[in-house]
């Protein structure tokens, strides 16, 4: 096919790079041109697996005629990598959270604007059909006015750089709050106004947060709680969940995003597992990004969306530290 | 055998009446309700006298224990009347509408030298007791985060006392006080409460609250309470610890479902989920109190527990109202 959109991946530090790379290979209008990574052996390993090129450096990849990159580095390295891409005028799909702190997030948005590139925050849950249907139903008024939402994004502790604060910027709260916060903003069109959180590290007793419950007030009067804990034990049958219970004036809805599963009991693997068989939201998200670049349209999820979600996570840390309710207008 | 008089023949009163009727250690001897029809209906079922006046009942019938199942706002008045008549008291949860009323109820029983038992029945639901026992045995290491849900449709019509939240306290005091007591039983005293809810929203036949509790031992708990569902009733409890996870939901714990086809005109198609047990939790809790009265042992729910559950609920309502967290103690 002519006029394929050429996309590369910057860093495989975040494991999501794996499914994004798979998606790039599946899209017939995309040319997955290669992988660059500070860890050269990692670049070569995945380049081989995805049948693409391993660039020697980010600079080498960005100097080529590619259109866009997917940034999957550690949270605290996002800024550095997005700036590099923007300077070469490559569009960016940036892994969530958009950055490890608000200062970096603002800088990322600024440089993207200045360089006139498309910047998309990777919020794949927006593309899960269970959420798409829920959003449609809420928008159609099936539940009446939304009064409250109870969300959980509980998972196992991912380990690795996620628990190194100098690379992640935070533990479970920064990792998990942003998904649900983005979904709720997208679904209701309302903006968060106040944040309170109880956060702790008693699950693993290390120097990063592993447990937390946020309560967030919204501009439309609804209240929301989000459980962003790494509270699933290693023996849990899957990595975690993204669930939402929505209470409206005339109805309620319950979404369990990854409930399309087969229960698998294995003597060989000594355990019980969920085998997910639902649609691939990562593929849909990458397709949306690549389509926007291909057609010269604006991306569907912006850097500002990434910042808005991150702001709630950071306010939660502030609330837990001070014991106060954080007013986002003043934060 | 101890003689029990029932005050309040509404839904929960009838559940308690049935429990006593099945008990060898106790005998239901009279029923009192300000609504003469309700009193008569219950009295006829158990072939006991019906009263509409508490004083008249106590004057006429030999009674050891008064079981109070009136609406919450009337608990204190009934507890006082029973204690002053020298009768032991079983009181439906919550002990009272406010902490100060709850304290007064405890004081009058103490002064009168009668025992007071608050019917926090959740402690006798086997699934909740089992979770507590497993946590206490160290099955999941140290408990870190707990989540509970208690969510159904609204209990009654707009003119019911449940809908007057100044009387019932809404879901926070009437419904999730169950979970507050159970959580305290499992994890000790609460340090801090933050809550959001529809308590003051004036949305008809709807209440809903999400409450975060921080316990003195560090546990963080999230409690959901709802009278906002179009149908059904959901309960769940999850305890995440350093070495494991316990998770229960009533929807996943139904051992028997009976489906009936609409084969005749007057027989609608219906699905009946059942959770059969040899003894109901209500029977177990009331028998426990009766046994304690006979043996002189202290009941598992102390009068202090009754006050503390109301204290958590009151703090949650205060947090909803003020928008700020509320520190206890």
In short:
By secondary structure, chain A is of the alpha/beta class. Helices cover 35% and strands 25% of the residues of chain A.
List the helices and strands and how they pair.
The complex is a heterodimer of chains A (331) and B (329).
Chain A lengths: L4 E6 L5 H11 L3 E7 L3 H10 L3 E2 L3 H6 L4 E4 L6 H10 L3 E5 L6 H13 L4 E4 L6 H11 L6 E7 L12 H4 L3 H17 L3 E9 L10 E8 L4 E5 L15 E6 L3 E5 L4 E6 L4 E6 L4 H15 L7 H20 L3 E2 L4
Parallel strand pairs in A: 1-2, 1-4, 2-3, 4-5, 5-6, 7-10
Antiparallel strand pairs in A: 7-11, 8-9, 8-15, 9-10, 11-12, 13-14
Helix pairs in contact in A: 1-9, 4-5, 5-10, 6-8, 8-10
Chain B lengths: L1 E6 L3 H11 L4 E7 L3 H11 L3 E2 L2 H7 L4 E4 L6 H10 L3 E5 L6 H14 L3 E4 L6 H11 L6 E10 L12 H4 L1 H6 L1 H11 L2 E8 L9 E9 L4 E8 L5 E9 L2 E6 L6 E5 L9 E5 L6 H15 L7 H20 L3 E2 L2
Parallel strand pairs in B: 1-2, 1-4, 2-3, 4-5, 5-6, 7-10
Antiparallel strand pairs in B: 7-11, 8-9, 8-15, 9-10, 11-12, 13-14
Radius of gyration of chain A: 20 Å
Cα end-to-end separation of chain B: 41 Å
Number of strands of chain B: 15
Largest sheet of chain B: 7 strands, mixed
Low-confidence stretches of chain B: none
Q: What CATH architecture of the largest domain in chain B do you see?
A: 2-Layer Sandwich
Can you tell me the number of structural domains of chain A?
2
% residues in beta strands of chain B: 25-35%
Low-confidence stretches of chain A: none
Query: What sequence of helices (H) and strands (E) makes up the elements of chain A?
Result: EHEHEHEHEHEHEHHEEEEEEEHHE
Highest CATH level, the class of the largest domain in chain A = Alpha Beta
Query: In which range does the helix fraction of chain A lie?
Result: 25-40%
By helix and strand content of chain B, what is the structural category?
alpha/beta
CATH superfamily of the largest domain in chain B: Dihydrodipicolinate Reductase, domain 2
- Distance between termini of chain A? 49 Å
Helix-and-strand structural type of chain A = alpha/beta
Oligomer: heterodimer
Q: Tell me the name of the CATH class of the largest domain in chain B.
A: Alpha Beta
């Amino acid at each position: 096919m002519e006029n394929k959109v050429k996309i590369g991946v910057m860093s495989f530090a975040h494991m999501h790079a794996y499914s994004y790379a798979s998606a790039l290979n599946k899209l017939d209008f995309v040319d997955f041109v290669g992988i660059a990574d500070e860890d050269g052996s990692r670049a070569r390993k995945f380049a081989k697996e995805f049948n693409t090129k391993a660039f020697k450096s980010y600079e080498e990849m960005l100097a080529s005629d590619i259109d866009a990159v997917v940034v999957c580095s550690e949270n605290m390295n996002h800024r550095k990598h997005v700036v590099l891409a923007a300077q070469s005028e490559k569009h960016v799909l940036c892994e969530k959270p958009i950055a490890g702190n608000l200062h970096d997030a603002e800088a990322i948005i600024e440089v993207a604007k200045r360089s006139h590139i498309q910047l998309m925050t990777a919020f794949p849950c927006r593309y899960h059909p269970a959420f798409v249907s829920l959003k449609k139903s809420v928008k159609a008024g099936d539940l009446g006015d939304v009064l409250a939402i109870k969300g959980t994004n509980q998972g196992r502790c991912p380990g690795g750089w996620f628990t190194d604060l100098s690379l992640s910027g935070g533990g479970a709260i920064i990792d998990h709050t942003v998904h649900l916060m983005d979904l709720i903003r997208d679904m209701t069109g309302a903006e968060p106004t106040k944040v309170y959180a109880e956060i702790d590290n008693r699950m693993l007793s290390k120097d990063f947060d592993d447990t937390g419950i946020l309560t967030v007030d919204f501009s439309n009067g609804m209240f929301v709680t989000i459980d962003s804990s790494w509270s699933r034990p290693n023996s849990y049958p899957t990595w975690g969940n993204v669930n939402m219970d929505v209470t409206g004036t005339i109805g309620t809805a319950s979404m369990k995003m990854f409930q399309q599963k087969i229960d698998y009991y294995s003597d060989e693997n000594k355990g019980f597992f969920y085998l997910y068989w639902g649609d691939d939201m990562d593929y849909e998200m990458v397709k949306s990004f690549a389509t926007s670049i291909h057609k010269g349209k604006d991306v569907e999820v912006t850097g500002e969306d990434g910042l808005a979600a991150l702001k709630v996570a950071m306010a939660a840390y502030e609330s837990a530290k001070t014991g106060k309710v954080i007013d986002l207008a003043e934060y | 055998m101890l003689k029990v008089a029932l005050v309040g023949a509404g839904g929960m009163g009838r559940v308690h009446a049935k429990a006593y009727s099945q008990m060898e250690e106790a005998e239901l001897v009279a029923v009192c309700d300000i609504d003469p029809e309700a009193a008569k209906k219950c009295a006829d079922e158990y072939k006991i006298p019906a009263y509409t006046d508490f004083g008249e009942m106590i004057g006429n019938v030999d009674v050891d224990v008064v079981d109070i199942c009136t609406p919450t706002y009337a608990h204190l008045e009934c507890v006082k009347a029973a204690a002053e008549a020298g009768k032991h008291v079983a009181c439906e949860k919550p002990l009272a509408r406010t902490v100060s009323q709850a304290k007064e109820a405890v004081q009058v029983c103490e002064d009168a030298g009668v025992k007071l038992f608050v019917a926090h029945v959740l402690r006798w639901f086997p699934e909740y007791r089992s979770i507590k026992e497993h946590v206490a045995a160290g099955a999941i290491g140290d408990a870190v985060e707990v989540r509970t849900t208690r969510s159904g449709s609204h209990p009654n019509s707009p003119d019911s006392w449940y809908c007057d939240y100044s009387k019932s306290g809404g879901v926070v005091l009437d419904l999730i006080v169950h979970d507050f007591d159970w959580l305290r039983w499992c994890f000790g005293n609460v340090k801090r409460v933050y809550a959001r809810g529809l308590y003051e929203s004036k949305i008809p036949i709807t209440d809903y609250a999400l409450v975060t509790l921080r316990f003195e031992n560090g546990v963080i708990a999230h409690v959901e309470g709802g009278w906002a569902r179009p149908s059904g009733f959901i309960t769940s409890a999850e305890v995440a610890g350093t070495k494991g996870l316990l998770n229960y939901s009533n929807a996943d714990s139904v051992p028997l479902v009976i489906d009936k086809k609409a084969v005749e005109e007057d027989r609608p198609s219906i699905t009946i989920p059942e959770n059969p047990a040899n003894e109901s939790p209500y029977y177990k809790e009331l028998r426990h109190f009766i046994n304690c009265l006979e043996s002189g042992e202290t009941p598992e729910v102390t009068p202090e527990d009754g006050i503390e559950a109301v204290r958590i609920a009151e703090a949650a309502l205060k947090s909803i109202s003020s928008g700020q967290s509320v520190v206890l103690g």
